[in-house]
Amino acid sequence: MLADDNHEGPVYLLDFQHARFHARSSTEVLMFEAGYFAGSCRRWIPQDTIDLWLSKLLNAMGITDTDERDGLKRRFRYYFSADLSRKERMKIQ
């Protein structure tokens, strides 16, 4: 999902061990999951690639309002950098 090669193929969830399925959609949960995932990859993926990936994610969600995008980017950056305990992570809705 984070690649420099502009691969246009389908995206697959490779490991369901840590996948969680929620009863309702939540942009907060999505920004947490995206930020947490990207944060774990930051050693190998350049920041500009992560920023581009986030932009594409927001586009895929249909988020066009500038204020809403900025707010979601702030949440993403928070979760990207945060070191939350398991208890704190489980509270995110």
Strand content: under 5%
Euclidean distance between termini CA atoms: 23 Å
Q: Number of helix segments?
A: 4
Task: Provide the structure class.
Answer: mainly alpha
As a percent range, the share of helical residues equals 40-55%
**Cα radius of gyration in angstroms:** 13 Å
Largest sheet: none
Give the SSE map:
Layout: H1 27-41, H2 47-60, H3 66-81, H4 86-90
Structural summary, described in words:
The structure is a single chain. The chain is an all-alpha fold and 93 residues long. It has a domain at 46-93. The protein has four helices and no strands. It is globular, with a radius of gyration of 13 Å.
Relevant terms:
93 residues, globular
Please give a quick description of this structure:
The chain contains four helices and no strands. By secondary structure, it is an all-alpha fold. The model has no long low-confidence stretch (mean pLDDT 83).
